[in-house]
């Protein structure tokens, strides 16, 4: 299925647009392709876009002063990613986004998103719904980190996103869960 149809199906789960409205909305997106390992956003970059994943898998991550990687999010098809702090507050990126696999995305600038939201009420509703959904997911993940041990976090991830285990290298899953590769191996073999 082509990128345009994937985006249309995703949006139509939340709001209904006429063909003309969707064509107008889609005209504000720019299709981009990236290779495995390619960087989309680097810490320190100016960020003016967010990305809708059409195919492939991306990771959003931070590397601390001790060169330890913390993965904030994996982005699979129909997920969105960016450095939202930098995007919304016009600051430099503090996180990185790169490709775990070859990927195809649709990019929309902050300016264009705001423009179409002001012009089409349904699109404003769609983006508000999407932002709220992302906030809820982030809150659940934070609460899981505060309340659950590594085994429980691992089981939650496996239940929610079983496809990640065939798509993402184990050391990245360990970084997402906040555990060592060895701990992940023990959890993986006991499951």
UniProtKB/TrEMBL annotation:
It holds the Pfam family cNMP_binding. Residues 17-116 form the Cyclic nucleotide-binding domain. Coiled coil: none annotated. This is Crp/Fnr family transcriptional regulator. It comes from Flavobacterium aquatile LMG 4008 = ATCC 11947.
């Amino acid at each position: 299925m082509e990128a345009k149809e994937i985006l249309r199906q995703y949006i139509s789960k939340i709001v209904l647009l006429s063909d003309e409205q969707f064509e107008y909305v889609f005209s504000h997106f720019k299709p981009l392709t990236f290779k495995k390992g390619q960087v989309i956003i680097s810490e320190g970059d100016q960020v003016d876009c967010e990305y809708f994943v059409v195919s492939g898998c991306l990771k959003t991550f931070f590397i601390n002063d001790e060169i330890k990687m913390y993965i904030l999010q994996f982005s699979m098809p129909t997920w969105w990613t960016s450095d939202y702090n930098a995007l919304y507050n016009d600051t430099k990126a503090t996180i990185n986004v790169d490709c775990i696999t070859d990927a195809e995305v649709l990019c929309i600038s902050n300016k264009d998103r705001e423009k179409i939201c002001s012009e089409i009420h349904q699109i404003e509703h769609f983006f508000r719904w999407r932002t709220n959904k992302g906030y809820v997911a982030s809150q659940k993940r934070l609460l899981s980190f505060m309340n659950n041990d590594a085994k429980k976090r691992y089981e939650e991830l496996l239940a929610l996103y079983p496809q990640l285990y065939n798509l993402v290298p184990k050391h990245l899953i360990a970084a997402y869960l906040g555990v060592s590769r060895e701990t992940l191996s023990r959890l993986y073999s006991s499951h």
